[in-house]
Write a structure and sequence with these properties.
This protein is 50% helix and 19% strand. By secondary structure, the protein is α+β, with helices and mostly antiparallel strands. The N and C termini lie far apart (43 Å).
Length: 197
């Protein structure tokens, strides 16, 4: 098993990238959330990896954070979700945003992620409900999900996605302005101010 790669970014073309580790080029696929954090070609990188062994190929998936890799591995255990869909989910929604969707049982937000239809969204809500608790115990920090706070955060997240912000940016913005008492409009306003500042 290849647990991580530390080396030089030799090439990148979403979703593929090549990491040069002491003269050996490792071809990987990564979610867009990882691509947003990559340096320019030639830069030093450290990526966590997950190896999928199939009859016809060995595929290496790379992640910028341990939270992304944990969620990817957990998604693979959901029936009907393979590496492609799991990468699509991580590309379309942040780890925190995904956790919020599961906690609030929001299938509509999940179906906005490319590749996730109504059936897969419903399966994710059912099968990931208990795993979210396991993930939170394993180091994934769950955002506040109590009633109004969760829905306000989710609505703010969806609004920022609609405005064209990337999932990684949105997660950081909402974390920086987190307030359980704030309304959706207040969260959006604060996030936009933080983005502008």
């Amino acid at each position: 098993m290849i647990g991580w790669l530390r080396g030089r970014l030799a090439a990148k073309s979403p979703p593929a990238l090549v990491v040069d580790v002491n003269g050996v080029g490792y071809e990987c696929e990564a979610p867009m959330s990882t691509f947003y954090q990559l340096p320019e070609t030639g830069g030093e990188i450290f990526l966590r990896t997950h190896l999928v062994v199939r009859e016809d190929a060995h595929l290496l998936y790379a992640f910028a954070t341990e939270d992304e890799r944990r969620l990817f591995r957990s998604l693979l255990k959901v029936s009907g979700v393979g590496p492609r869909i799991a990468l699509g989910i991580l590309s379309g929604i942040s780890v925190d945003g995904f956790m919020l969707c599961i906690e609030a049982q929001d299938s509509a937000a999940l179906t906005r992620v490319p590749g996730v239809g109504r059936k897969i969204a419903e399966r994710l809500l059912v099968e990931m409900r208990d795993r979210v608790k396991e993930l939170s115990g394993a180091g994934v920090e769950l955002p506040p999900a109590a009633g109004r706070a969760a829905s306000a955060q989710q609505e703010a997240y969806a609004a920022l996605v609609a405005l064209g912000y990337r999932p990684v940016e949105i997660a950081k913005l909402l974390k920086s302005v987190a307030d359980e008492q704030a309304s959706t409009e207040e969260l959006i306003r604060r996030a936009l101010q933080a983005a502008a500042g």
